[in-house]
Amino acid sequence: MEQNYEKSLKRLEEIVNLLEEGGQPLEKTLELFSEGTALISSCSKYLDEAEQKITKLLSSGEKDAQ
Amino acid sequence: MITPTPTVYSVNELNTYVKQILDNDDNLKYIFVTGEISNYKAHYSGHLYMTLKDEKATVKAVMFAGNASKLRFRPENGMKVLAFGTVSLFPRDGSYQLYISDMQPDGIGALNIAYEQLKKKLEAEGLFSPRYKKPIPEFPERVGVITSATGAAVQDIFNVLSRRYPLAEVVLRPAKVQGDGAAEDIAQAIKTFNELNAADVLIVGRGGGSIEDLWAFNEEVVARAVFESHIPVISAVGHETDYTICDFVADLRAPTPSAAAEIAVPDKLELKSELISYKQHLLTIVKTRITNERTKIKGIEQKDVMCNPLAKITENRRELVYMSERLGNLTAGVLDENKRKFAALAGKLDALSPVGVISRGYALVESDGRIVTSKDDVSTGDSISLKVSDGVINAEVLNVNEG
Known about the structure:
The complex is a heterodimer of chains A (66) and B (403). Chain A has 66 residues and is mainly alpha-helical. Chain A has 2 helices and 1 strand, in the order ααβ. In chain A, helix 1 (5-21) runs antiparallel to helix 2. Chain B is an alpha/beta fold. Chain B has helices at 11-24, 65-68, 109-125, 152-164, 182-196, 220-228, 245-249, 257-264, 268-301, 304-307, 309-352, 354-359, and strands at 31-42, 48-53, 58-63, 80-90, 95-105, 142-147, 169-174, 201-206, 233-237, 252-253, 364-367, 370-371, 383-388, 391-396. A 5-stranded mixed beta barrel of chain B has the order 1-2-3-5-4. The A-B interface holds A 4-6, 9, 12, 15-16, 19-20, 22, 26, 29-30, 33, 36-37, 40, 43-44, 46-47, 50-62 and B 138-139, 141, 144, 158, 161-162, 166-176, 185, 188-189, 192-193, 196, 198, 268, 271-272, 275, 278-279, 281-282, 285-286, 289, 293. Strand 1 (53-56) of chain A pairs parallel with strand 7 of chain B.
């Protein structure tokens, strides 16, 4: 996922709020809906496929050894 | 051989005698005894009764309410203590016991004092103040972990993080968490994370251990480093019951390292169910919208104009006929009026016409094609013509006289 999870979730909230307020033309409503569902599936995929990355910062004592 | 008459003591006399011996021995006054508490009983009167033991022996001990109320810790079975008191005997039971006047957990008396002093000092400086507590980010991209690379804590933390939120990168900075130089290493690790800006949240801690084992987290150098960290710090030292100075300074205290990992990141499963509810919510909104649009269209369809479009045309046609009739009537009226005006004008015109005059007996005199209106227009002998109503009379001028 190019965007980070937090930003995607924020946009999703924004979309839901816009749709809840109503007052959007039908075309815009459908456009927001498809953007929302796309965000949901990319977020969901991101959660499913993420693998934890572990890196190590060396302590000063270890620097010479490694 | 003379056998002296044996002295026969009562039990009470015996006990009282032994008690005197004990009481008079300066070696048994105000002595330190170290041992583990067992059979501990806090009487409602405030007196504490217990047995102190080591691997080989036990001794009864009592601490009266007046002294017990000054204790700064709560004694427990199994706790190693350093007791200060005097040995005497309780005649009723015939058992000698230690009358404790003061007591502290063994080996940590000095540490305890240092702990309390540092805690008071840092608290007075405001290092524990809630206004310095930084919020823990909701979705950290990098979680920094400062703990021993070999302890159980690091595995616990890794397990929780990968189960809950594999999206975050875990940055481990192995640190010495007990013994000489541990506090300095922990402090340096916190500084390194801050210098490199290598994490969005830091977990600093270690698994359970004795108070000596956890001591590094009570050192001022660690407290200062935590306080100065611009990265939020979650402190996770030992078990739930262990409170270190590091816990007080940290932005958040977790009872255990696993709990710290739980706090540091959101839960994947919760996030997924959140996504599912978002999806259902979106669907509901859009379905409702579409239903509303349908209802609107139905409403329009049911209007007269949509049901019977010809009605409007018929009505228009009727209107048109009416209008054209009205227009016709108006036109006729205007025409009659004009006719009347024309007749009047024609009458007036008739009165002015020379033809009318001629018909009444006048003649129009012309000479050389010009109308004669004066005696000067003609001379004697000129031919003139007289136009009358039904023809022309040609004549000759006989003479011209003044009128």
